Amino acid sequence: MGVKVPAAPHLYAVPYLPIGGIFDDRELAAVREVLTSGATLSQGVWRPRFEEAFRRYTGTRHAFSVTSGTVALHLAIHLLDLRPGDEVIATPQTYQATIQPLLDYQVTVRFADVRPDDANIDPDRVAELINERTRAVLLVHYGGAVAGMTSIMDLARRHGLLVLEDAAHALGSTLDGRRAGSLADIGCFSFHSSKNITTLGEGGMVTFDRDDWAERLERLRSNEADAVLRPARHSFGLSEAPVAGALYPGHAYTHDYVRIRRAGTNATLGEPAAAFGLVQMDRLPDLLARRQAIAGRLGEVLGRFPEVRPQQVTPGSTHAYHLFTFFVDPAAIDRDALIRELGAAGVQTYLRYFPLHLLPEWRARGHGAGECPVAERLWFGEHMNLSCQPGLSDSQVEMLGDALDRSLRKLVR
Predict the structure, then answer these.
(1) What pLDDT score does 326 carry?
(2) Would 25-221+266-272 and 282-411 be classified into the same CATH topology?
(3) Which of 212, 205, 156 shows the shortest CA–CA distance to 184?
(4) Would you call 131 helix, strand, or coil by DSSP?
């Protein structure tokens, strides 16, 4: 008997990440304009246009594009100015990049468990973990459902903490009329091809209101060191005015570095990517509406089954539906059997994400099972994600809904 080989992801009738439908001739025309204009492909006019559109959309004073969401997180965490011995409270239910930069710091990470109804960080658990060494809180708006930001920001202000919101899932989510990316001290976005908009497959953005952070981040992403500056005391025997056209670091003639916080890097988002992203921003309302419509169809199916509960939405917020998430009652439904049943029906699924405190890098830092029991219980037996990507066709959405209905009917005990 031969071995049955699983279908490749692109052969699923309902792929988790459909290839088509996320862009059209508008994006292609913008990229074509960049490529045929004769203008530079780096640090031209398109990047500031994209950043300005993003700044207006989020309502933040500053928006800095970078090459990926991971790079955005690395630079944003640097701006928190963490010191050896500091403590950071973090959610365990997110992609590893949210807190991965903390491995480079001599800080202690305290994982605050999540709420069982939305998989977002639990403000009550955050409150329990705050002490005199706590410096910051790192959270995600899981799947696009806004975390309990009112409670968390109140805690942060009372205790003098900084809050970083990983809004990679939440472009388009709002709370009380304010958009994700403006709800905390600093926000980070991803423009990976799976996210709510993309900049040709990779890209990211950092948003905040502080002018001092803007000066530092501009240097960091432009291959200059983040440093404390003072006016230069000498000219090295050279002219005070640089030769026209000479390539030199921005402060080479004008300033001395008193203290270097970190070396810079090249995080420049290319012009074709920025042009693509600018068009995607124009299309964002339609892309969000499509996600929400798909989520509504799937929610109708779940409403027939008391054995499942959809991800709850924080009062006063809107959900961007990067992920469609629900939770099964393990006494009534075998979650893993549901995944297999959907796969047999041609529906591709992923579970996002493995609890961070159980990853080997964090186990090496002393974390382990039992630390976040709610996150562990959800992920290992209750948590489900389905695609609500705007690239799904109407027929694929109906197939997805029908397969979900049939599978649940078959498996409910």
Answers:
(1) 98
(2) no
(3) 156
(4) coil
Q: Is 203 left (phi over 0), alpha (psi -120 to 50) or beta?
A: left
**Residue 181 tokens, joined:** 């990316």
Both tokens of residue 191? 């423009």
* DSSP state at residue 154: H
| DSSP letter for each residue of 14-36 | B-SS-SSSS--HHHHHHHHHHHH
39 Cβ contact partners less than 8 Å away, ≥ 6 residues apart: 45, 271
Q: Which stretches of the chain drop beneath a pLDDT of 50?
A: 1-9
Q: Is the peptide bond before 353 cis (omega within 30 degrees of 0)?
A: yes
Q: What angle, rounded to 10 degrees, do the helices at 271-302 and 46-58 form? A: 30
Instruction: Report the pLDDT value the prediction gives residue 233, as an integer from 0 to 100.
Output: 76
Q: Residue 252's pLDDT is what?
A: 74
pLDDT of residue 245: 59
* Residue 254: per-residue pLDDT: 78
Per-residue model confidence (pLDDT) at position 241: 57
Query: What is the model's pLDDT at position 279?
Result: 98
**Can you name the CATH fold of 282-411?**
Aspartate Aminotransferase, domain 1 (3.90.1150)
End-to-end CA distance of the chain: 33
Residues of 153-169 as b/e, b for ≥16 C-beta within 10 angstroms?
bebbeeeebbbbbbbbb
25-221+266-272 under CATH 3.40.640.10, yes or no:
yes
What CA–CA distance (Å, rounded) separates 400 from 346?
Answer: 9
Report domain extents, the chain.
25-221+266-272, 229-260, 282-411
Instruction: Determine the Cα–Cα distance for residues 193 and 134; give it in Å rounded to an integer.
Output: 35
* Sheet architecture: strand order including 317-318: 178-179, 174-175, 317-318
CB 138 within 8 A of CB 89: yes
Tokens of 81: 């100015």
Q: Report how many helices (DSSP H) and strands (DSSP E) the chain contains, helices first.
A: 11, 15
The pLDDT value given to residue 246: 59
Q: What pLDDT was estimated at residue 253? A: 72
